[in-house]
Amino acid sequence: MAEIDGYFRSGTGLTCLACRLVFADAIIQKQHYTSDWHRYNLKRHVANLAPISETTFLEKSLQVAQDCEKFKSSHKEIFCSHCHKKFQSSKALENHFNSKKHKENILKSDNNVIEEQKSMEYEVSPHKNIEEDKNLQKKMMILMKIMEFQLAIVYFVLHP
């Protein structure tokens, strides 16, 4: 009934009925109770199933982790940043790009960029402080990157 290992010794009275183990001391028993393997066997015990060995549990855990990785790598999130919508397939995204609503959102965002540019033009003035010049430079770089990104999307929409 008990596994006998460096950590396990019969006759101590410290047991885990769900995993069918006997422990050498209370510290090892407490560590075991916090393990995923014990939780798994506890659920099996409640369902009147026999416990599995730690090796079998680790093999199953590894297989589940690998399956999850395969699923994640095969199911990339498809997202339209202008409309803030998620799609299940690239075909659905392509159809969305051709929709009237998407094109309106692109035009709105382009108008917002133009408005930001105009407001920044009014901000430009001779600065007495070098730090102000650096902050303005950072703002301009961010704005340029946003515009480049939006132009790339507009090009993609107009030239599928």
From TrEMBL:
Residues 80-102 form the C2H2-type domain. GO terms for molecular function: nucleic acid binding; zinc ion binding. SMART domains: ZnF_U1. The keyword Metal-binding applies. GO terms for cellular component: preribosome, large subunit precursor. Keywords: Metal-binding, Ribosome biogenesis, Zinc, Zinc-finger. InterPro entries: Matrin/U1-like-C_Znf_C2H2, Znf622/Rei1/Reh1, Znf_C2H2_jaz, Znf_C2H2_sf, Znf_C2H2_type. Pfam families: zf-C2H2_jaz. It comes from the Eukaryota. GO terms for biological process: ribosomal large subunit biogenesis. PROSITE patterns: ZINC_FINGER_C2H2_1 (PS00028). Belongs to the REI1 family. This is C2H2-type domain-containing protein. It comes from Meloidogyne enterolobii (Root-knot nematode worm).
